[in-house]
Amino acid sequence: xxxxxxxLFIFLFLFGSVFSQKNRxxxxxxxxxxxxxxxxxxxxxxxxxxxxxxxxTDTIEVNKLHLARITRDASSYNAKNAKPTLNTRKLVTFKxxxxxxxxxxxxxxxxxxxxxEVHWHSNLTLGKRVSPRFSVGVQGGKENxxxxxxxxxxxxxxxxxxxxxxxxxxxTNIRPYVSGRIGYGFLNSDFFxxxxxxxxxxxxxGIHFSSRNNFRxxxxxxxxIQKSSGSSTFNIDNFGNSLSYSYDTWLNRTVxxxxxxx
Length: 262
Known about the structure:
Shape: rod-shaped
Structural class: mainly beta
Distance between the termini: 73 Å
Number of helices: 1
Helix content: under 10%
Radius of gyration: 31 Å
């Protein structure tokens, strides 16, 4: 072998090695919840952490709580339910549990109070996420209240509407939050009673669960404080005698609720 052939052989060998090594670099993608994207190779992975290498970051350790999505190159992933060959270049995408932190949302929830006084609340909330932790909106619904006293036993159905706000205390998959509504409850009179509603306040605390789907579950406890007033007249015998009374009070109830948000 002459010198020219020897140098050509060395060049082709080195070029082939570099080309082969370059092709072995897997293009795994980490999409963060803040919108940033890392492209490189997953070296190791556990239930909570990802050891990741890229030409930009070198080797870093990433907490999965901060990731919205992990996209693995099929040539580097060997899961029990997906075993692609090394020649497969199709991307396998695994969507992680996450929360929506921007855009509009719709929430429907229903709640109940148990005990001597039983009543149901159902509400619909239309809102906007103004920041990853803070949301505002408008909430309305029907809230039935059962009232028992010495003169009356009635169920009042308030149609409520008000301004709504929610703040998340932690940025985790299970997100505790505080929320509240301030508004007005409308109440219609009936045949025996002259009734009307008034202002209403509903502070609450809850937990918002993450999901891989387009909907998420909320569990919460509310303190419903509603103004109510009116008067009633009852016949107490067959001789035309009657009893009249009036009331002006705040109804204060604790409500346990479950909701779904889109």
